[in-house]
Structure formats: structure tokens, C-alpha cells
Amino acid sequence: MTTLTIRDFRPADAGAAAAAHTAGREHLLLTPEVFVWLNTRQAGGEHFRTFVAELDGEVVGSIRCGVVTGTTTKGVGYANGSVLPAYRGRGAFTALLAAAERHLVEHGVVELHSWVDDRPESLAFAAHRGFTEGRPAHFAGRDLTLPLPAATALPPGVGLRPATDWVDDPYPVFLIEADAIRDEPGEVEMDAADYEDWLRGAWARPDLDRELTVVAVVNGEPAAFTAVQTDGAHRYWSAFTACRREFRGRGLSKLAKAESLRRARAAGYRWAYTSNDATNAPMLAINAWLGYERCASERKFTKRLDG
After folding, report:
1. Which residues pair with 245 in a beta bridge?
2. Which CATH architecture has domain 142-298?
3. Within 10 Å of residue 94's Cβ, how many Cβ atoms?
4. Which tens digit of pLDDT belongs to each residue from 210-230?
5. CA 61, CA 91: separation in Å to the nearest integer?
6. Residue from 115, 217, 201 nearest 163 by CA
7. Candidates 3.40.630.30, 2.60.40.10, 3.40.50.620, 3.40.50.1440; correct CATH number of 4-109?
8. C-alpha torsion 268→253→227→238, nearest 10
9. What pLDDT band is residue 1 in, cutting at 50, 70 and 90?
10. What whole-number distance in Å separates Cα of residue 14 and Cα of residue 126?
């Protein structure tokens, strides 16, 4: 008889949790080290929690959940996870989702957001459990051994520098993200970015590569950046590309992304991946110019938890 157990994440679960998350999804990057970090960092009002599913004592899946922060909108939460393909259909993810929903309701969440693989079985699973289908996003990848667009001369006053140049004072980099994230496509207005939360979160991630994270400066002032996470070996993930409003329309994001990819190839990385909302035409065009090709899609689903 199969025994299913849902419990809190332990550091020893990191390898199994990462394997479940990336199985069949070569475009995703989430290392065991990051799983441990996510569950030990101080995340303020996020109330972050990871649950794992055990079948007969073996960890076969996990779900990460929390309250959405960085916004004045209250009561929104998220839950994302996966189960190893060989163990799906046995109730593990249904139980993980139920545990996440209970946790989030305890912290005032009334609207749950989740990204779902754009596959018939995954979409049907979400719809059957009360979720409403929303906007799509697309993943794209490229082989870094293939030629990249040739470097072009930088406009007067523009420079490209690694994020390591701001390691002692990253506040100017934060200002770029805080401005740009307000215009990101989404259901929730991200209008309350907090510097201390950003330091403990995006800037402190163990997989953030500050040498490959490239900042575009205009007359010495940070104006745009592309943030990069890696597995430290072969895979590169474009986590967020941002430009301050007053500097848009100059091609700075394009310059930063191209320079970052050139540095990644020189450092020996083989595969680069990225993701964009399907409505983000400017960034989709930049990625196509850089040689990315679509490899997968997902959809945002939402569910009311207050009735």
C-alpha cells in the first residue's frame, strides 16, 4: 500500500525537490543550493514555505508558496511546484496544493496565483481544482556555442559594467528594478518595492552571477541591467531585464543582454534560457534578435480562496 506524506522541507530534500522542479523542463533553473537558501532566508511578510511530498518515504515533489510582497495590494499569494513525472496521478500534487492553500489562508491570502505548464494535462488539472486560466508566457533558449550578434559601438556616454562594480552599494541597481517592475505585465501592481527585501532576496540569491549581470550606465549613472542566474557550470538564466523609464528607447537593455551573453559564452556556459510575457513585444523582439527560440510556454492561473 502506498503511503503519501506531506511535510515541511528539510535541507536534505534539496536535491530531490530540484529534480522534481526541473524534470522535463530543461528551460528551468533552480539548484538544490537555492532551495536551501529560499527556506532559510528572512523574507519579511512573505511567509514563505516549502512543502514536500513523500511516497513511501521518497521525496517525489514539492511546492513553494508565500504572500506576494512589493505591492500595496493585499491578500494575494502564490504557489508553484511539481512532481516527478513517474509519480504523477497518485494525488501527491493535489495534497501539496491543499497544504499550500491552508498555509496561505492562515496569512490572509484570498487570491492565489500559480504558473502552470501549457500542456493539456496540466491545464486540465488546474481548471478541475478551481483555477481560472489567464495570460500566457513563453520560454526561449539558445545554444551559446552558436554565433552571437556582433558587438556594436556604444553610443556616446554609454558604458557596460558588471554588477560586481556595485557590490559595496547596490542601491543604484535596485532603483532600476524598482522603477521598471511597475511596468511589468501582470495581475498585481508592483508599486511598493522595498530595498531591504530586495537585498535579502534578488541580490542575495546564491545563483546570482554578478559578473554576468551587466549594468548599462549613461554618463556614469546606472540606467538598465540584465540580471543573470546560473548553475555554475553550463546553464544560464536571464532572470530580469530592466530599464529606468527616463532612459528607455535607447537600446540599453539590448546592449546589456548582448554583452551578458558574450561574457557567458566566454565563461564556458552552453545553454541560455529566458522567459517573457506573451504581450511583451519589445523584449520578445530583443530575444529573437539575440537568437533565442521558443521552447515551452506556461499560463498564469488564479483561484479565489475566500469562498
Report:
1. none
2. 3-Layer(aba) Sandwich (3.40)
3. 16
4. 999 999 999 999 999 999 999
5. 11
6. 217
7. 3.40.630.30
8. -60
9. low
10. 25
Residue 207 banded pLDDT, cuts 50, 70, 90: very high
Using an 8 Å Cβ cutoff, are 103 and 112 in contact?
A: no
Decide if 121 contacts 31 (C-beta within 8 A). no
Cell of 11: 535541507
Q: Is residue 202 exposed (0-12), middle (13-18) or buried (19+ Cβ within 10 Å)? A: middle
What is residue 82's predicted lDDT score, i.e. its pLDDT? 96
Q: Give 59's Cβ-side CA count (13 Å radius).
A: 21
Distance CA 135, CA 117 (A): 12
> Is residue 84 a contact partner of residue 19, using CB atoms and an 8 Å limit?
yes
The span from the CA of 71 to the CA of 69, in Å, is 5
User: What distance in Å separates the CA atoms of residue 83 and residue 284, rounded to the nearest whole number?
Assistant: 30
What is the tens place of the pLDDT at every residue in 256-270?
A: 999 999 999 999 999
Q: Do domains 4-109 and 142-298 have the same CATH topology?
A: yes
Q: Are 42 and 154 in contact (CB under 8 A)?
A: no
The three-state secondary structure class of 62 is strand
Report the predicted TM-score, pTM, of the whole model to 2 decimal places: 0.95
